[in-house]
């Protein structure tokens, strides 16, 4: 390994090869503090050429590499294993926004650009880059692409995959594939771009991307509404889809229990709806017409919802600051859970037609088998994406509870997901957390195809091994 480290020095300046514990440690534990690994070194390349050279050295020396962006992922994908033989390749120095093409409505960015920096750069030129999630101040576009991240605008603009037109990728051989074309149509055989998106660093290292931009909406209205049942929230969604069509840009659900937890840790994030109802829904409409037009439409739909008894209360944000407060309340649930202690996350999608029965039955089963647990259920209802998280009963040690109950709780929830023909990972990916569960979930044929692809693209198994699939 000494030889490998010496070879690395021919590629990177000493200060970009971290080998001392105090320098490496910030890169070795994930955001949730769920995984901690060891690494031979943490390397910080600046260019795709440097990444390619590093990968060639990894291939020669049989050293596995764990690509890393902001390390905000929830499935341990960017954390190395405990062997101390892997390297972490963090892309944060590759943070140049290379170009905004105004006519083509695209932005070309390097993998280490922070998501929020891309949003801000786009906005400065009157464009919207619609990918938006709670970690946007620290996650990086390479990580977003590698996990095919979702977030709060998927309902209108799609997930990261839908926003990407082209990629630059370093392969397991250390070659650079330049697929940085900003084309909206390109049927030239297999779609390599889509293969790398969502592959969580197991098939190649994304070094740059061409992403779509949209006109910046000029009017936006945000409202919080109260509902008594799951079925009301889904009927309400359908009503908004019918009446507001493409103006509907956000539809997020939060249960009473989720917002109780928020209030406990962040009293300033208390629900403005009276009595914190069973279900609070955050709805956003955006448009390019006047504010008055959108406001009128929103009020009309809300009136119809009241008349149909779908909602029991509503509050419309009167200015941007209030709208931001509503969104912060939604986004703070993850932070409140982190404050409360380690929790069990289930990032799932369920067809909307099966959502009511899923929640009813799963809640009942979970409460019967694990008395006292708290079900922190919230998420992107417009996409059928729930964050069906489980927190231990109050007063119980979280780590001890999770150690004993993690497996049976995951099994119970995932069995329910299968029953409803849902997905065990809607937007957070697989990483190491769901590696075991994936075979059963995908089925033998799909799982074997995934392994075939992994073997073909990374025969030495040096790119993020034992994440997503094991070969
Ligand atoms: P990392 O965590 O560093 O890496 C994630 C995976 O991608 C790893 O497997 C890693 O090896 C791989 N990878 C990273 N960079 C590259 C690269 N350049 N090339 C190849 N592989 C790479 N996720 C959502 O989908 N929706 C949400 O609403 C959402 N909200 C969040 C809110 C909070 C508060 C937090 C902490 C996280 C949230 N996440 C959400 C999860 C996380 O932010 C996303 O998964 C994000 O896309 C990860 O980006 P990252 O740069 O942190 O990637
Ligand atoms: C969100 O939607 C994120 O806020 C985080 O995907 C979900 O904390 C979670 O489980
Ligand atoms: Zn989410």
Automatic annotation (TrEMBL):
Q: Which cofactor does it need?
A: FAD
What positions does the domain FAD-binding PCMH-type occupy?
35-216
Q: Which family does it belong to?
A: Belongs to the FAD-binding oxidoreductase/transferase type 4 family.
> Which Gene Ontology MF annotations are present?
catalytic activity; FAD binding
Q: Which domain of life is it from?
A: Bacteria
Q: Which PANTHER family match?
A: BLL6224 PROTEIN, D-2-HYDROXYGLUTARATE DEHYDROGENASE, MITOCHONDRIAL
Which of UniProt's keywords are assigned here? FAD, Flavoprotein
Where does the signal peptide begin and end?
A: none
Q: InterPro entries this protein is in?
A: FAD-bd_oxidored_4_C, FAD-bd_PCMH, FAD-bd_PCMH-like_sf, FAD-bd_PCMH_sub1, FAD-bd_PCMH_sub2, FAD-linked_Oxase-like_C, FAD-oxidored/transferase_4, Oxid_FAD_bind_N
Pfam family name, one: FAD_binding_4
Q: What's this protein's name? A: Hydroxyacid dehydrogenase
Gene Ontology biological process terms in this record: respiratory electron transport chain
């Amino acid at each position: 390994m000494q030889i490998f480290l010496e070879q690395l020095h021919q590629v990177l300046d000493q200060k970009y090869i971290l080998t001392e514990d105090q320098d490496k440690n910030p890169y070795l534990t994930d955001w949730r503090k769920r995984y901690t690994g060891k690494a031979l070194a943490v390397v910080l390349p600046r260019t795709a050429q440097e990444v390619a050279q590093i990968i060639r050295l990894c291939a020669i020396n049989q050293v596995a590499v764990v690509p890393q962006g902001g390390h905000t992922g929830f499935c341990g994908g960017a954390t190395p294993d405990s062997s101390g033989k892997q390297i972490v390749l963090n892309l944060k120095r590759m943070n140049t926004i290379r170009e905004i093409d105004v006519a083509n409505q695209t932005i070309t960015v390097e993998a280490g650009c922070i998501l929020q920096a891309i949003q801000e750069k786009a906005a400065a030129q009157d464009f919207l880059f619609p990918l938006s999630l709670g970690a946007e101040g620290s996650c990086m576009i390479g990580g977003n692409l590698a996990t095919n991240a979702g977030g709060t605008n998927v309902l209108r603009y799609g997930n990261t995959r839908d926003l990407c037109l082209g990629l630059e990728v370093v392969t397991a051989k250390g070659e650079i594939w330049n697929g940085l074309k900003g084309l909206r149509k390109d049927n030239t055989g297999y779609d390599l771009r889509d293969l790398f998106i969502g592959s969580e660093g197991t098939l190649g290292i994304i070094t740059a991307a061409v992403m779509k931009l949209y006109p910046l909406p000029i009017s936006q209205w945000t409202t919080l509404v109260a509902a008594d049942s799951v079925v009301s929230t889904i009927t309400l969604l359908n009503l908004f889809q019918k009446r507001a069509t493409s103006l509907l840009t956000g539809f997020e659900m939060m249960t009473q229990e989720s917002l109780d937890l928020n209030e406990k840790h962040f009293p300033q994030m208390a629900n403005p709806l009276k009595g914190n109802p069973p279900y609070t829904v955050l709805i956003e409409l955006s448009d390019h017409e006047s504010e008055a037009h959108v406001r009128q439409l929103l009020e009309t739909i809300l009136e119809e919802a009241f008349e149909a008894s779908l909602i029991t209360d509503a509050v419309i944000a009167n200015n941007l600051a209030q709208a931001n407060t509503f969104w912060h309340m939604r986004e703070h649930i993850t932070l409140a859970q982190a404050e409360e202690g380690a929790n069990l996350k289930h990032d799932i999608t369920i067809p909307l037609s099966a959502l009511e029965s899923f929640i009813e039955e799963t809640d009942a089963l979970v409460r019967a088998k694990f008395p006292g647990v708290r079900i922190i259920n919230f998420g992107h209802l417009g996409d059928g994406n729930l964050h069906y998280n489980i927190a231990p009963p109050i007063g119980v040690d979280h780590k001890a509870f999770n150690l004993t109950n993690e497996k049976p709780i995951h099994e119970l929830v995932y069995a329910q997901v299968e029953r409803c023909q849902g997905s065990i990972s809607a937007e957070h990916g697989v990483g190491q957390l769901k590696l075991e569960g994936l075979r059963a979930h995908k089925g033998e044929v799909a799982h074997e195809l995934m392994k075939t692809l992994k073997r073909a693209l990374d025969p030495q198994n040096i790119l993020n091994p034992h994440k997503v699939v094991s070969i």
